[in-house]
Design goal:
Number of domains: 2
CATH superfamily of the largest domain: Periplasmic binding protein-like II
Shape: elongated
Bound molecules: phosphoribosyl ATP, zinc ion
Helix content: 25-40%
CATH architecture of the largest domain: 3-Layer(aba) Sandwich
Order of helices and strands: EHEEEHEHEEEHEEHEEH
CATH topology of the largest domain: D-Maltodextrin-Binding Protein, domain 2
Structural class: alpha/beta
Radius of gyration: 20 Å
Number of helices: 6
CATH class of the largest domain: Alpha Beta
Length: 220
Amino acid sequence: MSTVQGRLRIAVQKSGRLADRSLDLVRDAGLRVIKGNNDLLYRVENYPIDLLRVRDDDIPTFVADGVCDLGIVGENVLEEGKNGGTNAEVVMPLGFGRCTLKLAVPPTLDYAGPASLDGKRIATSYPRILRRYLDQQGVAADIVVMRGAVEVAPRLKLASAICDLVSTGATLEANGLDAKETVFESQAVLIRSPSGPEPALAHLLESIVERISGVVSSQG
Ligand code: PRT
Ligand code: ZN
């Protein structure tokens, strides 16, 4: 059973690049969000709904497990977190949080296509998405997992290339790296639990999904 005490739960990023837009979206969908007495949970006063505010990395698992019924997360995080078990289902793309996971190299590397990375080390926070891409390209490279500051890896000789999210390109430029290949295109998505909410909340969940869909298409 997915929810606690007859309330739907929506998982949103607590702070970070998706946090404000996620709150705006649910507010635009008609949910009156009020801060509860703790930072982790915001309550919705006009519906039996709570917002669970967490690290974005935790959102796919919470939704897959039915701890939350809905969630808003970057497709990149969802994709990287996929495993052989049950995964959260994508309801719709939300049109914000757009970014691209790209391979980038320093100009000193003689780059003529993905095959140039054969036998090289590539730093990334997205080892699974990168591995799948490299396998598709038939490239055998070593992946160095870094949780942050991936863009400094070539300068520190930790890796020959990087695979990182890019939005404006300013970070790559500041670090003297050239974007080469697009590995994955991402934006924020609405996800839902495969198990569904408790029956009494099923109708509410569908109507919230419909309202969010209406907001997103009006912004389209
Ligand atoms: O604390 P928590 O774990 O929740 O947050 P986080 O630090 O893991 O994520 P956060 O808030 O940085 O990003 C949340 C989501 O925003 C990501 O998972 C993406 O779906 C999306 N997003 C959109 C981005 C970017 N744009 C982005 N530019 N995430 C990260 N970046 C970083 C990128 O890694 C690089 O360091 O910004 C830098 C590049 O930006 P530009 O503009 O210089 O190209
Ligand atoms: Zn994160």
